[in-house]
Amino acid sequence: MIGKSFPKLGVRKLKRHNFIMILSIFIFLTWCILNESFSIEYMFAGLVTSLIILMVAERYISDSTMPNISFKYILNFIKYIGIVIFLVYKSAFQIIGAILRREFIVNIVKVDLPTKQDFINSLVCSSITLAPGTITIEKDGRQATVLTLNTQNKTKEELKKEIEDSFKCLKKEEVE
Fold first, then answer.
1. CA torsion sign, 165 to 166 to 168 to 169?
2. Contact between 128 and 134 (Cβ < 8 Å)
3. Span 57-108, pLDDT tens digits
4. How many helices (H) and strands (E) does the chain have?
5. How far, in Å, CA of 84 to CA of 163, rounded?
6. Pairing state of beta strands 134-140 and 143-150?
């Protein structure tokens, strides 16, 4: 009787609901942190805003495949955020020093992106551009062209390896 009144959710729908739930919590927490207020009014406005954002994204933007959210996925995401913050500050101090010394070289480097997933590769390209002194000029499939201020007179291969190693935590085992 209970099985008939509550239809079973398929694995695909369960993954989708799990992904949406975690994404809504992330958007809600981001809202609270950016507003620097944890009052009831702001939290309610953040909850409503996050739900509206998710409804619009699900309706018009998302595709039918949702990633499987696991504990490892969440840890990699937290690690990724830490890496991006570290790279932004590290790059900023290097650029400030290079500007004061007036010693830097501009290089264009082709970088291999970490995964086949277009969204993650776009996220990596945006993260590269966040760091001072680097701009992603073009993204083509699994490669990106990056313009960088070379403050330490490294070779193009060293620059490429440094950028690729920064985002290797996003690589995952993919079925060919």
1. positive
2. yes
3. 766 665 555 555 666 777 777 888 888 888 888 888 988 888 888 887 888 9
4. 6, 3
5. 11
6. antiparallel
